[in-house]
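Lab notebook, bench 4. Still working through the backlog of constructs that have no structural model yet. Next entry is a single chain of 46 residues. Request: give me the structure tokens for it.
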Amino acid sequence: MKRILVAPLHWGLGHTTRCIPIIKALITEGFEPMLASDGGALELLK
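Model written out:
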């Protein structure tokens, strides 16, 4: 399984919310997303 790093920075939650469907699509396509973030963005992704 190929891994890919997704790292939305904590500059508000807009970047993070737009990453959620991308992360789901990556999983569907057989990728293993590795998430890196902090603050509220990381809490949202958990």
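Notes after review: Residues 10 and 41 are 6 Å apart (CA to CA). The chain has two helices and two strands. Flag for follow-up if needed.
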